[in-house]
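Example record

The entry below shows one chain as it appears in the dataset: sequence first, then structure tokens.
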Amino acid sequence: MTRLIQAVALSITASVMISCGSDSKEADLSNQTTQRPQATNRTTPQVNPRSDVVRFSVLDINGKQHSSDEWIGKQPVVINVWGTWCPPCRREIPDLVRLYEEYHSKGVEMLGLAVRDSPQQVEGFAARNNMKWVMLMGERDLLYTLGATRSVPTTIFYDRNGKEVSRFVGGRDYRTFKQAFESIL
């Protein structure tokens, strides 16, 4: 009986966390239908016990497995959690494209973490919108690892040591993002 109560409490807590507070600048993840990538996207979330560097593995839009170790802790990284179906995400993309063009040559890598989309949708949308950064497919486990379960867009900035410097939940403008990009150089 105790396990049943714990399972119900955990389920309710998870539902509340996922569907909390959406406003006009963010889209609630709980109201979207899921389209899974064709390949199984198994995330292996970990936090290094000696630091707060987040570690995970995830598939890109071509089905290739990647590890966060490829980027995080080696260079400044921006992770943008987004969806093609998300109006606030779509509004901030032109500013992110501009900032990527400005900061990629300075060593900043950007990772798009698409949620509730198919790889084909992401690939087409990214091509049409000049989104030249790495596109990864987000799954629930990875969103929990990143603490990005509440809403999209969520944009997380990591310095070259892998330390999270700032995080924005909801859409932002060029000037706000530019300050965050500057802070991780």
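Notes for this example: The chain has a mean pLDDT of 80. Residues 2-19 form the longest helix (18 residues).
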